[in-house]
Amino acid sequence: MKLGVFLTLFRRKTLEEALAFAAECGVQTVEIATGGYVGNHHCKPEELLNNPGEIERFRQLLDRYKLEISSLSCHGNPLHPNKIVAEEHHRDFQNTIRLAQRLGVHTVVNFSGCPGESETSQRPVWITCPWPTDFAEIVEWQWREKVTPYWKEMSSFIREHGVKVAVEPHPGFAVYNTETALRLCDIGGEQVGVNFDPSHLFWQGMDPVSSILALQDRIYHFHAKDTAIFPNRTALNGVLDTKSYKDISARSWAFRTVGYGHGADTWKAIISTLRLVGYTGAISIEHEDGLMSVQEGFIKAVRFLEEVLITETTGEMYWAN
After folding, report:
1. Sign, CA torsion 189/108/215/68
2. pLDDT score for 224
3. Interatomic CA distance for residues 116 and 118, integer angstroms
4. Do 72 and 223 meet the contact criterion of CB atoms below 8 Å apart?
5. CA–CA separation, 321 vs 46, rounded Å?
6. Short-list 8, 25, 19, 53, CA closest to 304
7. Residues of the chain with pLDDT under 70
């Protein structure tokens, strides 16, 4: 496995500045944002696809800093009921796949998308319980009419361009847990797998190790991000928390830098189980910690994961029975 970073952390830096800093801090791979909700600060696929010279310059920069691209990532919602948003995110997705093929990048990351509750919806609708029965009917409609047709069609496009797509399970989208991830994998075939982010599992009360063992070789990419759960608040309000991420003092949980939500033993178990199921890709650091600056959180994550990876490769193995 190679240590990496989701380069959107450094969106205020130029591409070269971001690559230089990442290399200086000791990572070997970069995940580059190409559209959707994460933006395209360092890479605009449409511009590169229309300019072969820019693609070559892009490659040269990566070579200069001895960095590999672990994935191109366009976390968006191509199923958004607002057609303008859906078309923009779909276009970003397709162009990202085309660019990945041109660059020789094997993996593209995205969300599954989330439709509305009907053809007349204006906003995405994410259902969290089956009753009243309207909710169960909405989920069935979303998968039958929107999720399944879109991903069946996209799986052919993905196959034609010789890449794989790692869908990131995230609450608020059709794919948010192990069960829904496997459902989409069945629909999309081997072209569609998972971008595994333990932070989204922790706050739902899931066990990342159990999920890794269930997903096995459908894990195509990995995000290193943690979540702190605040027991005194979850005891009162549970984990369905719609307060702002900035309001950490009032929330039931918060995203944290790796090691600040769960300790080394938990992360050793995760990394070891990834190796157990055959994952050899990047460990891509993502930073959304409201209690640390980007630079502080990133450097602490690098040092923490370097220690975890060293321990894991020396023979200590941790996984659930």
Report:
1. positive
2. 98
3. 6
4. no
5. 47
6. 25
7. 311-321
**pLDDT at residue 319 in the model:** 40
Helix axes 148-160, 83-103, angle to 10 degrees: 20
Per-residue model confidence (pLDDT) at position 309: 87
Q: Where are the beta strands (DSSP E) in 11-143?
A: 29-33, 68-73, 107-110
Q: What share of the chain is helix, strand, coil (3-state, %, to 5)?
A: 50, 15, 35
The encoded tokens of residue 314 equal: 């020396």
| pLDDT score, position 320 | 38
CB-based contacts of 125: which residues, under 8 Å, 6+ apart?
114, 115, 116, 117, 138, 142
Inter-residue contact 32 to 42 (CB < 8 Å): yes
Per-residue model confidence (pLDDT) at position 312: 60
DSSP 255: E
The two structure tokens encoding residue 89? 């995110």
Question: Is residue 19 within 8 Å of 65, Cβ to Cβ?
Answer: yes
Amino acid at 185: C
For residue 301, give both structure tokens.
Answer: 């994550």
Per residue in 116-155, pLDDT (tens digit) is 999 999 999 999 999 999 999 999 999 999 999 999 999 9
> How far apart, in whole angstroms, are the C-alpha atoms of residue 139 and residue 174?
8
State if pTM tops 0.90. yes
Distances (CA, A) of 20 to 49, 62, 285, 297: 24, 9, 16, 18
